[in-house]
C-alpha cells in the first residue's frame, strides 16, 4: 500500500508531504484545486514521462517521493532480476532537473523508466477514464476471466510455449528465405571456396614465402657475402680462426701460472670453439645455397596468389582469408544440407504447435467454465448500481491464430435495458455505464487477485446521489482487503471514506499554491456540507453532512 507521498516543486505544488493508511481514503476539492496535479505527481513515481514544464520553479529540481509497503505483492523476483535491494517498505524517488533531465531511484538505486514503470504497474492501479476504455478491449476482458478461473500459472506456461513456437517459426522463415537466394549464391560461393582451398593457406605461410622469395631472388649477393665471411675466418695468413688458434696456444701456456690465467684461458677456448663452429656453419651455407630459378618462380606465384586473394576478399592477411574460407565452407555446407534442415525445423514447429493447441484448449475450457459466474456477479453488482436490466452475453470461441493470451476470441456483449439487442460495449454502453461496469469488474477482481492499491479518479462522475451511494459502498467493501482511494465530487462517496483528504488552493503575495490536508471529523462535516450546499453553510446542509457521516 501507499504509506507516504512527498511532492516538491511540481506545477502548483510547492511542498506537500502526506501520509496514508489502510482502508478507504477519499480525496475532495473544488474544480481546479489541483486534484489532477496530485495525480500527475504520483504518476511520475509510477514511471510516466515528464517534461520541464512540470517544474514550478524552473531553477530548482522537482522531487516526488513515495513510500510503499510491498510485502504482500510477491515482488522479490522483480527486484532480483533488476539487481535492486528489496525492502518491505520500498521508497521510490523521481527527480526532474532544471536542465530537463529526469532521474529515478528505487531504494536509492538508479533505475530506468522502464523498470520504474514495471514496478509502478504492480503497486498502484490508477483508474481513469482512459482505463475505462480498456474495458472494451478483448485482452482486458480475458484477463478478468483468467483471474476468476485461476489461470495465472497456465497463462504463464502458454506464454513460454508461444515464445518458443514463435522463435522456431522465425528460424524456419529465415531458412526458407535463405533457400530462395541460396541456389544463386551456392555456385558462386562454392567457386570462391574451391579457389581458397587450392591456395596454400596456413598460419605463417605468407611470412615464410616472403622470406624464401627474398633469399632466392638475392642468391648471388648471399653467396658472395658467405664466401667473404668464410675467407675472413679461414684465410691461412690472416684468418680469424688461425689467429685464435695461436692465441689459444698462448693462453694455454699461461694457464699454469695462476688461477686468473686459467680463467682467461677458459674464455679464449670458448671463443675459439664458437668461432670454429661459425666457420663450419658458413661453409655449410655455402654448400647449400644455390640459384634455383624454378623454385623462385613457384614461390613468386604462390605469393602473388595470396596477394590476389587478399585483394579480392578485402583481407589484410592470411588469417583473415582463413576466416573467410571457414564462413564460405559453412554457407556451402548449409546450402547443401538445407532441405534436411528445413524438414527438421518443420517437424520441431509441428511438435510445438501441438503443445500450444493442447494448452490453449485447456485455457478455453477453464474460461468457459467461469463465464456463468462472472455474468451473475456483474449483473448483480450493476443491479445495485441502478442498472437492474443490464445483462451480458459471454461466449468463448476458438480463434484461427495463437494470440498473446491463448487461442480464444471472447464475445463480450452488453445490453443495458430489457428488450434491447446485445452489442459491443464500446458501441452500446455510455460513459457512465462503462464506469459502473468497470467498478463492478474491479470489485470482482479484488475477490480473486491480490490487487495493488487502487485509485478511482472521479469514477462517479455523472451518476445520481443514490447510485453514487452504492458505488461508495462497493469501494468501501473493496477496501476491506486492499487500499482504495477515490477522487470524488460527490458527498455520498466522500462520506464513506475511512479517511478524508482535501486538496485546496491558497494565494500569498500573488502566488497560487496547491495544498493538501487530512480532515478531522469537524472538518469533514464542513467539507461535506459545502459539497452539498455550497460555501454558504446552512443548518440543513450541516445536518445532512452529519447524517451522511453517521
UniProtKB/TrEMBL annotation:
SUPFAM superfamilies for the chain: P-loop containing nucleoside triphosphate hydrolases
Keywords: ATP-binding, Coiled coil, DNA damage, DNA repair, Nucleotide-binding
Cellular component terms (Gene Ontology): bacterial nucleoid
Every RecF/RecN/SMC N-terminal domain range: 2-509
Keyword Nucleus listed: no
Alphabetical list of Pfam families matching this protein: SMC_N
Any GO molecular function: ATP binding
One GO term (biological process): SOS response
Coiled coil (UniProt feature): 155-182
Keyword Ligase: no
Family: Belongs to the RecN family.
Function according to Swiss-Prot or TrEMBL: May be involved in recombinational repair of damaged DNA.
Protein name (record): DNA repair protein RecN
Organism: Ulvibacterium marinum
Amino acid at each position: 500500500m501507499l504509506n507516504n507521498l512527498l511532492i516538491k516543486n511540481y506545477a502548483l505544488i510547492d511542498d506537500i508531504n502526506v501520509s496514508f493508511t489502510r482502508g478507504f481514503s477519499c480525496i475532495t476539492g473544488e474544480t481546479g484545486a489541483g486534484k489532477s496535479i496530485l495525480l500527475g505527481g504520483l504518476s511520475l513515481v509510477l514511471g510516466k514521462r515528464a517534461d520541464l514544464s512540470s517544474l514550478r520553479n524552473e531553477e530548482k529540481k522537482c522531487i516526488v517521493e513515495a513510500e510503499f509497503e510491498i510485502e504482500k505483492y510477491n515482488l522479490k523476483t522483480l527486484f532480483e532480476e533488476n539487481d535492486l535491494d528489496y525492502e518491505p517498505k520500498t521508497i521510490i524517488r523521481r527527480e526532474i532537473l532544471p536542465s530537463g533531465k529526469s532521474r529515478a531511484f528505487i531504494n536509492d538505486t538508479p533505475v530506468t523508466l522502464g523498470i520504474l514503470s514495471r514496478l509502478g504497474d504492480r503497486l498502484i492501479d490508477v483508474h481513469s477514464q482512459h482505463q475505462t476504455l480498456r474495458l472494451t478491449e478483448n485482452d482486458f476482458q480475458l484477463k478478468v476471466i483468467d483471474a476468476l478461473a485461476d489461470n495465472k500459472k497456465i497463462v504463464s506456461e502458454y506464454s513460454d510455449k508461444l515464445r518458443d513456437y514463435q522463435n522456431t517459426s522465425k528460424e524456419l522463415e529465415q531458412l526458407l528465405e535463405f533457400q530462395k537466394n541460396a541456389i544463386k549464391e551456392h555456385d558462386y560461393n562454392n567457386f570462391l571456396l574451391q579457389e581458397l582451398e587450392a591456395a596454400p593457406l596456413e598460419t605463417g605461410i605468407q611470412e615464410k614465402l616472403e622470406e624464401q622469395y627474398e633469399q632466392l631472388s638475392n642468391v648471388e649477393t648471399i653467396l658472395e657475402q658467405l664466401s667473404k665471411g668464410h675467407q675472413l675466418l679461414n684465410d691461412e695468413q690472416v684468418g680469424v680462426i688461425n689467429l685464435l688458434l695461436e692465441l689459444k696456444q698462448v693462453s694455454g701456456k699461461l694457464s699454469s701460472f695462476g688461477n686468473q690465467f686459467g680463467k682467461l684461458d677458459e674464455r679464449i677456448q670458448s671463443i675459439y670453439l664458437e668461432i670454429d663452429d661459425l666457420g663450419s656453419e658458413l661453409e655449410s651455407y655455402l654448400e647449400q645455397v644455390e640459384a634455383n630459378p624454378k623454385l623462385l618462380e613457384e614461390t613468386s606465384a604462390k605469393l602473388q596468389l595470396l596477394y590476389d586473394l587478399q585483394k579480392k576478399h578485402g583481407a589484410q592477411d592470411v588469417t583473415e582469408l582463413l576466416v573467410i574460407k571457414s564462413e564460405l565452407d559453412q554457407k556451402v555446407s548449409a546450402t547443401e544440407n538445407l532441405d534436411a534442415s528445413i524438414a527438421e525445423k518443420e517437424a520441431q514447429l509441428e511438435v510445438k504447435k501441438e503443445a500450444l493447441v493442447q494448452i490453449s484448449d485447456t485455457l478455453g475450457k477453464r474460461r468457459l467454465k467461469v463465464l456463468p459466474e462472472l455474468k451473475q456477479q456483474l449483473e448483480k453488482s450493476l443491479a445495485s448500481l441502478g442498472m437492474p436490466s443490464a445483462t451480458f452475453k459471454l461466449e468463448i470461441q476458438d480463434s484461427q491464430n495463437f494470440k498473446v493470451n491463448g487461442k480464444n476470441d471472447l464475445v463480450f456483449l452488453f445490453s443495458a435495458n430489457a428488450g434491447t439487442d446485445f452489442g459491443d460495449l464500446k458501441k452500446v454502453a455510455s460513459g457512465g455505464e462503462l464506469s459502473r461496469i468497470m467498478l463492478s469488474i474491479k470489485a470482482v477482481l479484488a475477490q480473486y487477485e491480490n490487487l495493488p492499491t487502487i485509485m478511482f479518479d472521479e469514477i462517479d462522475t455523472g451518476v445520481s446521489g443514490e447510485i453514487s451511494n452504492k458505488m461508495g459502498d462497493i469501494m468501501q467493501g473493496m477496501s476491506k482487503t486492499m487500499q482504495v482511494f477515490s477522487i470524488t465530487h460527490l458527498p455520498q462517496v466522500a462520506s464513506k471514506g475511512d479517511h478524508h483528504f482535501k486538496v485546496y488552493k491558497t494565494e500569498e503575495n500573488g502566488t497560487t499554491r496547491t495544498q493538501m490536508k487530512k480532515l478531522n471529523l469537524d472538518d469533514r462535516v464542513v467539507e461535506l456540507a459545502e459539497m452539498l450546499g455550497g460555501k454558504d453553510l446552512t443548518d440543513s446542509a450541516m445536518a445532512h453532512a452529519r447524517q451522511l457521516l453517521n
